[in-house]
Amino acid sequence: MIHIVIPVFNRKNFTRECLLSLKRGTNQNYSIVVVDDGSTDGTADMLREEFPEVKVLFGDGNLFWTASVNMGLKYALQHGAEYVMTLNNDLEVAEDFIENTYKWIRQKPNAVIGALEMDAVTREPFCGGEIIDFKRNKVRYLLNELPKEKQVGLHNVSQLPGRGLLIPRAVIEKIGLFDQDRFPHYVADYDYTHTALRNGFELYVNYDAKLYTYPEESGERKNRKEKSLKNFYNHLFDIKGGGNLRDFTRFTLKNCPAPYIPYYLVNGVARRIFGYLVH
């Protein structure tokens, strides 16, 4: 059984729709752990009344994404999970999402596998895996390279986001949980998948397992859309800032090959500063 871990903070309507989409699935062989990190909008009451089968753990509002996920992972592992999946609450899954996840588990039982992200509004593919080139500080987006007829099955990648990320127990036993000390909110998922890759585990994106996201709902998108000095500061320094320089520096020092670190750091900092101003 897959144990699905969903960290939440408010936005109970998103959480409800996410859980309902899982309920509509063709395969119900999963269990759910929701980690509610101090929601104040009635999320806990909604979960208790509408989804009594869901296990709910509680934080005090200071866990953020990474520590919330780790709390859920620990619970799942303590209850015998062989596979865990991290899933954000601001998305919905396709009806055959779990079915097509199990399909590839049977063929790649020790691989870390991500999902194909679709735009929930346009219903078009949005994110289909990334291959990073540290030497040139570039990211190849697999979705842009694959013709339509090849957008099926598994494809190798070098990093994966935490939305629909399937992790075998064997991976956690070897490399541990997410690095909540260095990366309390963003980047922890990319760091984790790089760590798994360095330790000999394969990374794939599963084009048969589709989930639907709302990219415009992210805090970083709103920071960029409503430009101000405050949002610029938040972008670079806030714990939820998508361009957080501390997180980027820590990620680089931990994951970038040593010869490429100086260029990667300088180029990356410039991209985060000037990218915000021009986009």
Automatic annotation (TrEMBL):
UniProt name for this protein:
Glycosyltransferase family 2 protein
Gene Ontology MF terms: transferase activity
InterPro entries per the record?
Glyco_trans_2-like, Nucleotide-diphossugar_trans
Name the source organism: Pontibacter burrus
Could you tell me the keywords of this UniProt record? Transferase
| Record flagged with keyword Transit peptide | no
List, for all copies, the residue spans of the domain called Glycosyltransferase 2-like: 4-115
